[in-house]
Amino acid sequence: MRLALVGTSHRLAPVEVRERVALGEREAAAVAHELAAEGGEAVCLSTCNRTELYLAAEDAADAEARASALLSKLASLSESELVPVLYRLRDQAAALHLFRVAAGLDSLVPGEGEILGQVRKAAELGSTGPMLDRLFRQALHAGKKARSETAIGENPASVSSAAAALAQQVFGELEGRKILVIGAGKVSELAARNLVSRGAEIAAVANRSVARAEELAGRFGAKSIPLDQAAAELAGSDVVVSSTSAAGFVLPREAVQRVLPARRGQPLFLIDLAVPRDLDPGIHDLPGCYLYDIDDLEAVVADSVAGRRVEAARAEEIVVEEAERFRAWQASLDVVPAIASLRARAEEIRARELERLEGRLGALSEQDRRAVESLTSQIVNKLLHLPTVRLKEAAAAGADGGVYADVVRDLFGLRDDAGSDRLPR
Amino acid sequence: MAEAFLWSALACYAAAAVAYGISYRSPGIFGRAATWCVRLGWLAQTGLLVVQVTEAAGFPWATWSASLGLFVWLVVTAYLIWGCRPRYRLLGVAVMPLAALLLAVAYAGGGATGGAGRYSSLFLVLHVGLVLVGFAGFTLAAALSALYLWQERRLKRREAKILRVSVPSLVTLDDVAGRTIAVALPALTLGIAAGVVRLALHGGGFDALMGMTLATWAVYGIFLLLRYEAGWRGRKAAYLLLAGFVLVITVRLGLPAAHFS
Lengths: 425, 261
Description:
The structure holds two protein chains of two kinds. Chain A is built from 16 helices and ten strands. Chain A has helices spanning about 15-20, 25-35, 60-75, 80, 90-100, 115-125, 130-150, 160-170, 185-195, 210-220, 255-265, 295-335, 335-355, 360, 365-395, 400-410, and strands at about 1-10, 40-45, 50-55, 85-90, 180, 200-205, 225, 240, 270, 290-295. In chain A, strands 7-6-5-8-9-10 form a six-stranded parallel β-sheet. Chain A has a four-stranded antiparallel β-sheet with strand order 2-3-1-4. In chain A, helix 9 (about 185-195) links the parallel strand 5 (about 180) and strand 6 (about 200-205). In chain A, helix 8 crosses helix 12 and helix 13 packs parallel to helix 16 (about 400-410). Residues about 420-425 of chain A have low confidence and may be disordered. Chain B folds into two domains: about 1-115; about 120-260, Four Helix Bundle (Hemerythrin (Met), subunit A), CATH 1.20.120. Helix content of chain B is about 80%, strand content about 0%. Chain B contains eight helices and no strands. In chain B, helix 4 (about 90-110) packs antiparallel against helix 5 (about 120-155). The model of chain B has no long low-confidence stretch (mean pLDDT about 85). The interface of A and B includes residues 162, 165, 168, 296 and 299 of A.
């Protein structure tokens, strides 16, 4: 059984092509079943950045041809048009590619976490058998290992997640922390959502248009207030997220300074995502106040992504190790039929010899008879143990396992399906 | 035997201090190695204390140098409670060089052999034990405050690399320091009370160091009062804890001149 991969991703294909072959979960499952129906196993991994078809089949070239034709049909492009943006990989290279994908090493932002769930889902929806089941289980293991043993997925890769990570530097767990959102636009909502996903609560939404404030506040169970009352909410807030289109400062330094005594030393973290800025930069100089604007956050993200790239080198070593383990397992499959035949043959001889001696063994007690059965089984197992181990080792070490298997078949006169074709009498 | 334990502890603490210093620049294996050095050093020092107990005729830590050794052990014990957690590892940058230095000072003063039983009494044991527990708590709180000020400075400077080093949050550092003082101050109070009772029973005069200890008690008492009554937190509170720690160190290193003579 061979492993084949045909796919395209953001590395080769422009968005115009990717969007043509992007599939929803149901469509991806249908594609996998269609490919598997023609023989073998198939999984379709489709995200916004890639569409990849993994196939396990006896004939890898035929599997690739079928996958290419299907992608061509999906994209409504001729195969010659699609070829320049397709990659085709086989066996260990295909496995290594999937392991890199699962570890987030092939993602736009190294180590992004979403891909691991997408790989899991693709495997669940695919038509898997022994080969792809093993491949995807090991890919998920490699992805988790890369994230747990390196810091590739630890630091934020977006402005909103950087803001949340910085808030955690101030407060630790954000459970129960109160957020004041100033401006009801998409930008502040996204940042606030990131904080909410970490346990914080939106206490109030302040906006020039009260109707829009009410709409956003309603979604989070918060209260809505007019923009000019935002300062009054500061005493009970821990985090302020601001993004309005106001020309001047929405929150001057003096307004914040006035509420500090009421806060009794509790820190205040302020995120200013607006350009021009909403929050007076002088706020940052007040004791216990930490104000980060869009440039500060982008600098943190840039450093974080650079850090992820450094960690990516360590993660690469992990996925290469895992790919090598998969190769060893796949290679061992070449000798499994020969081993099975050899064992079946030995068992057949043992059973036949015992049957031949039935006349003489009949006089034995049941206990003695079981002892003879056990003794002969042990002799067979011990004789076959070393050849079995050696065959597997030879296959795993990269030696030609097929040659070893053929030699065994020839020496013992074996056929893989029936165990033997000429039993000695 | 005592010498072997002491040298092992000293070597491990020094190695931990160096490894923590490196782990600040490159987190990972050095941080873990440093924590293991602290654990091994703590075990060696525990062995030293056991030897001192078995060899001394009476209370083994009645001398200045031996009590300094016990103080270091208490500080490291308190650190290990937090230091084993990855986010608190950087606390070792402040704690372990101090532990190694004070243990070396204790050794130079003959701290490996333990003390004579001259002052053996229940009140002395309580006095020394409780005062040292209190001081160990103040030392840990000072290290937490130093880490707080460092982390706060990074946030104020808006360092782009701020997320690279794993440090407890400002609120956590502030809370843990406050809670440490809330435990350490009662221990010091009881230790002072035991000392006063012993003084009344065995006689003796009021010395400068007792005055310094009372001043230390007052500083930490004011800290707790301000914290719970006036909401003193953050940078000001951290500076106050560091000021209190200056007194702690003065008391610890000033003992041979005034208290044990």
